[in-house]
Design a protein that fits this description.
By secondary structure, the protein is of the alpha/beta class. It folds into 2 domains: 158 residues, NAD(P)-binding Rossmann-like Domain (Rossmann fold), CATH 3.40.50.720; 48 residues, no CATH class. The strands form 2 sheets. Strands 3-2-1-4-5-6 form a 6-stranded parallel β-sheet, with helices on both faces. Helix 1 packs parallel to helix 2 and helix 1 crosses helix 6. The longest helix has 16 residues. Bound molecules: NADP nicotinamide-adenine-dinucleotide phosphate. The site of NADP nicotinamide-adenine-dinucleotide phosphate (NAP) has 25 residues, from helix 1 and helix 2.
């Protein structure tokens, strides 16, 4: 778990709190999405969440009311079948290139929240204006350290109350940082990766086992 994903989701949590009704989370099995689905549920929203086939059961276990397998289903059609009028808020944690029709998922006046990825954000200003032209609001979220303390406290309370569960965390040794990057580059890490910077061990079977177990979860 990193402060960045918590803070990103803390912002999303605040977005969810202002809403009631239905939300859609795109990229729900990742570190950001895993928290976002649970925060939306704890905030009282009904949630449709997307993921690949291998993560369908996992995302269902997060509490999603409708799990959409983006590899076998048309996301836009599936959301509209689930909620004919569209949803109140969409969280895109993957990038506009993979969800160009995001605005079509929204009910009139709805909100599209994009997590700034720094690699796949497209033309942020153009997309914001396009959303505005169509009567929607597009918000681009980035870590806000000013709000981090309050968000972290609130998130800790949700975890302590059993309303939110920490997603899978794969711990890798610092010397496996390159492998961690390879795993992140697949775009299919479930939960979060953590690099352990203290208590470095000499190369050993245990270290190999840790790395191999973590890597196989995302096919590296
Ligand atoms: N702005 C900020 O402050 C902030 C903070 C934290 C993270 N981020 C960024 O937010 C993004 C998400 O972070 P994360 O840690 O959740 O990433 P992640 O662990 O890599 O998760 C990405 C998710 O995207 C899904 N995905 C991959 N390819 C897809 C495709 N073609 N179509 C639909 N879904 C696809 C994966 O689902 P499957 O594995 O099920 O296919 C996975 O659940 C990253 O780009 C990260 O850099 C931004």
């Amino acid at each position: 778990m990193t402060p960045s994903s918590n803070e990103t989701n803390g912002g999303k949590l605040q977005v969810c709190k202002e809403q009631s009704g239905k939300g859609a989370s795109y990229g729900a099995a990742g570190g950001v999405g895993s928290f976002a689905v649970q925060f939306a549920k704890s905030g009282g929203l009904l949630v449709a969440a997307t993921c690949g086939t291998a993560n369908v059961e996992y995302v269902r276990s997060l509490g999603a009311d409708r799990v959409i397998d983006y590899k076998t289903e048309d996301v836009c059609r599936a959301v509209r079948e689930w909620s004919a009028e569209g949803v109140d808020v969409v969280l895109d944690a993957v990038g506009p290139a993979t969800l160009p029709q995001a605005l079509d998922l929204l009910r009139p006046g709805g909100r599209l929240v994009s997590i700034l990825t720094a690699t796949a954000d497209g033309d942020i200003e153009r997309d914001r204006k396009e959303a505005e032209r169509r009567g929607f609001r597009k918000v681009t979220m980035i870590i806000d350290f000013e709000r981090a303390r309050d968000s972290m406290r609130e998130i800790t309370n949700l975890i302590d109350a059993g309303l939110v569960h920490v997603p899978p965390i794969h711990v890798l040794l610092l010397e496996d940082a390159a492998l961690a990057h390879q795993m992140i580059d697949t775009g299919h890490v479930r939960g979060k990766l953590v690099l352990k910077v203290a208590e470095l061990y000499a190369r050993s079977p245990r270290r190999d086992t840790i790395a191999a177990t973590a890597a196989c979860t995302c096919g590296v």
